[in-house]
Write a structure and sequence with these properties.
The protein is built from eight helices and seven strands. By secondary structure, it is α/β, with parallel strands linked by helices. It is globular. Keywords: Methyltransferase, Transferase.
């Protein structure tokens, strides 16, 4: 698959999040923004220690990078939810056996239906004040004892070029959103771990972590049983 042109990326970046991803969807899997397969595979290996799982939900599923993984670790067909119709169309072509739902992740339309929820690389699309509605909805979607698995890449040190690349990206996005409408919410360093954990706990989760050697760790937020 040929990736998007510079012009196409520029048009996407000057659109809203939903419209931008609708435009990018047909070529999204050829961009660096797609969750890398080694990261998905590491998540699958880490989850193997905590199963078996019956039914899985991929929150902000995009084109479906996590849906194939859910098929391997759960007994029933997975569900993917996203608010971009274009991304869901690509996911439908790649994963015809998945149940796909178009919805805003800040108001998930599910109640105690899943025992595993995952989300890959989506937090950057939510402002800090939007984490609680997101986590509240995931908590409601899980059965008692269910797990929300949130893969987290290793944070680069200030001495590493990646640190300054991420910081520079966020600065560019802040400038863009200050001078252009509609906003495109995509920040890479706005969810420090203490604040993230605090919002998960406030939503009713207990928290544990397990290492994913070579890539980071898996945050395991569990809805308490009973």
């Amino acid at each position: 698959m040929e990736g998007p042109t510079l012009r196409e990326l520029a048009v996407q970046a000057l659109s809203s999040v939903e419209r931008g991803y609708d435009l990018l969807a047909p070529k999204f899997d050829a961009t660096p923004f797609r969750t890398p397969e080694p990261f998905v595979a590491a998540t699958r290996r880490a989850l193997a220690e905590f199963g078996p799982f019956e039914r899985g939900l991929d929150v902000c599923c995009g084109t479906g990078a996590g849906l194939g993984m859910l098929t391997e670790v759960t007994a029933e067909r997975p569900t993917g939810v996203d608010f971009s119709a274009g991304m869901l169309e690509q996911a439908r072509q790649a994963h015809p056996d998945a149940d796909l739902v178009r919805a805003d992740a800040r108001a998930l339309p599910f109640g105690a239906a899943y025992d595993l929820a995952v989300s890959f690389g989506a937090l950057g699309h939510f402002l800090p004040e939007e984490r609680r509605p997101l986590f509240d909805g995931i908590h409601r979607a899980l059965r008692p004892g269910g797990v929300f698995a949130l893969p987290a890449a290793r944070a680069p040190e200030k001495t590493e070029p990646a640190y300054w690349l991420l910081t520079g990206f966020d600065l560019v996005m802040r400038v863009r959103n200050a001078v252009w409408r509609p906003k495109f919410v995509m920040y890479l360093r706005t969810h420090p771990r203490p604040e993230l954990y605090a919002d998960l706990v406030a939503a009713g989760f207990t928290i544990d972590t397990t290492p994913m050697p070579g890539v980071g760790e898996l945050i395991l937020a569990r809805r308490p049983p009973g």
